[in-house]
Structures are given as structure tokens and as C-alpha cells.
Amino acid sequence: xxxxxAMRAGRRRWKEMSPGKRALVIARWxxxxxxxxxxxxxxxxxxxxxxxxxxxxxxxxxxxxxIGLYILxxxxxxxxxxxxxxRMRMRRFMRDKMAKRGEPDDGSID
Length: 110
What we know:
By secondary structure, the chain is mainly alpha-helical. The protein has one domain (2-101). 78% of the residues lie in helices and 0% in strands. It is built from 4 helices and no strands. Helix 2 packs across helix 3 (63-77). The longest helix is centred in the middle third of the chain and has 38 residues, at 19-56. The model has no long low-confidence stretch (mean pLDDT 83).
């Protein structure tokens, strides 16, 4: 039950934070997400322009086109089961299921 305890501790820390510190944490997350998106867009743009435009003669992409392509690919090909939270829910479900069956929980998945 480590996950549930960690989630409760995180919620408790969040509630104890001052509004200014909460705003700083949110701003840090926004900046991090923007930086990751910018790097992903840059990588898509460079790879597309180097490989696809060179080999297949497709038009070169600009930065915003690459960001749009990256978002489109993530929406089309990222399954729900691949997210971190979905895996955590499945682990918790299986752990509870095994506990009801009376099998020991050694943390391994066979």
C-alpha cells in the first residue's frame, strides 16, 4: 500500500503549502511542459526535414508545424494503457485481487 500512503502524503504537503508556493510549483510545471514540448517539436522538425524531406521529397516543416504533428501523433498513437496513472491503477487492482484470493503479495508479477 505504499502508493496510497505516498498519495496521501503528497496531498497533505500540497494542502500545507502557502498559496505563493503552490503558484511557484504550478509555474514550474508549466515551464517544464513548455520546454519538453519545444524540444520535442524541435526534434520532430529536424528529423522530418533531414529524413523525410531528403528521402521522399516531402516539404520541410516549420517549428509550429512540427509541434502540431507531434501532438497529432501523440493523440493518435498513445493508448490509454500506456500512461503512468493507468499502470498504477492496474497494479492496485491486481494487488487487491490477489489479496482477496489470499495469495501473498511479494511485489513481483509472474
